[in-house]
TrEMBL record:
The keyword Metal-binding does not apply. The lineage of its organism: Eukaryota, Fungi, Dikarya, Basidiomycota, Agaricomycotina. This is Tyrosine-protein kinase ephrin type A/B receptor-like domain-containing protein. Gene3D superfamilies: Tumor Necrosis Factor Receptor, subunit A, domain 2. SUPFAM superfamilies: Growth factor receptor domain.
Length: 383
């Protein structure tokens, strides 16, 4: 009875020992169709020997074969129980990979355990291996193609925003002289561009101007004004003493004698009215004829002197006044005021005896003239 108990105990001890995982190279035994396991990270061969799990595979110690890492995973080390997912920017496209492959320039991969990389779309690029994200082309550049490793600079006359697939031409009214530009420049006042993709502005020519930015044409200088320089932002009004009847002019015309302009921006000269004159070109005002003179016509450059028998005591007059009984205008020319010939002898006619002779044609003794009807001559005189 004692002998039977000892035999059973020994058999149980033997089975228990050989059921433990065994190191590599250990020869396994089979008992009652049960095989003891190898350590994790190894597998048992057909020769019933524990073998180290190779790189690119996993082993749990219970299998007779190593399990290759699936696509998207890899394992660089031996004796492994699991595979590693390929990181962002990398991929594995074969089972049993020992390392992940970096995405080449022109491609990227944002996720893990990937089996392929993604080609960069138009407007993006990658210029390094192992990129996890595509880089948008910076403003001022573009890329029309996929799978690109760089971007193309926008040429002069064009611009781009970030991530552009093509450059955009500057619109009329703007320009860009430089390459690689994120925007266009507005044509300044006095300049314009009338075509797309302009690299420079055009100055407004003399006779035209432009007060605004971003313009596609210049304005014709209006009548009464001029511009005499290229690139003018404003038209200049003709000064007093000049005028300009035409549009698109580069200068103004000075008024001739007998004419004037007394405001800026005149489109025509003004004729001097009767009683006035101008004796020089470019006059801003008409000059009144001084006392003792007159001018009955317009647009004249001189005044007439009041002749003998006539006078003019006021400035700016178109006519002269005559004397009545007892009065005279004795000067040959430029008589300003009449002379009283009678002194203390009222109504003396035709002479007061002192050489003063009244020149009234129809002077009637004991009567005097009434003031002229238009009020331009003083009392006791006539026109």
């Amino acid at each position: 009875m004692v002998f039977a108990t000892s035999f059973v105990s020994a058999a149980l001890m033997f089975a228990s020992v050989h059921a433990l995982p065994q190191p590599e190279g250990h020869a396994l035994t089979k008992r009652n169709n049960a095989v003891t396991t190898c350590n994790p990270g190894s597998y048992y061969s057909t020769a019933m020997v524990c073998v180290v799990c190779p790189a690119g595979s996993t082993c749990d110690g219970t299998s007779g074969t190593a399990q290759p890492c699936t696509s998207g995973y890899y394992q660089p080390n031996k004796n492994s129980t699991s595979c590693l997912p390929s990181p962002a920017g990398y991929y594995t496209n074969q089972a049993g990979s020992t390392q992940a492959t970096a995405c080449s320039p022109g491609s990227y991969e944002p996720g893990r355990n990937s089996t392929a990389c993604i080609g960069t779309p138009a407007g993006f690029y990658t210029n390094q291996r192992g990129s996890a994200a595509a880089i948008p082309c910076p403003a001022g550049s573009y890329q029309s193609n996929k799978n690109s490793t760089s971007c193309t600079a926008a040429q002069a006359g064009y611009y781009t925003n970030a991530g552009a697939i093509q450059a955009v031409a500057c619109s009329p009214g703007s320009y860009q002289p430089s390459t690689n530009s994120p925007s266009c420049l507005l044509a300044p006042a006095g300049y314009y561009t009338n075509k797309k993709a302009a690299t420079a502005t055009t100055a407004c020519s003399p006779g035209s101007y432009q007060p605004n930015k971003n313009s596609t044409a210049c304005l014709v200088t209006p009548a009464g004004s001029y511009t005499n320089l290229k690139g003018s932002a404003q038209a200049t009004r003709c000064p007093a003493g000049s005028y300009q009847p035409n549009k698109g002019s580069t200068s103004c015309i000075s008024t001739n004698t007998g004419y004037f302009t007394n405001t800026t921006g005149s489109t025509s000269a003004v004729a001097c009215p009767p009683g006035h004159y101008t004796s020089s070109n470019g006059s801003p005002t008409a000059t009144p004829c001084p006392p003792g003179t007159y001018q009955p016509y317009s647009a004249q450059n001189f005044c007439y002197g009041a002749p003998s028998g006539r006078f003019q005591s006021m400035a700016g007059q178109a006519g002269v006044c005559g004397t009545c009984c007892g009065w005279a205008a004795p000067l040959v020319n430029n008589n300003i005021n009449p002379v009283n010939c009678t002194g203390g002898k009222p109504n003396a006619y035709p002479s007061s005896g002192d050489g003063c002779i009244s020149t009234a044609v129809s002077c009637v003794h004991t009567k005097t003239c009434v003031q002229s009807a238009n009020g331009t001559c003083p009392a006791a005189t006539f026109t």
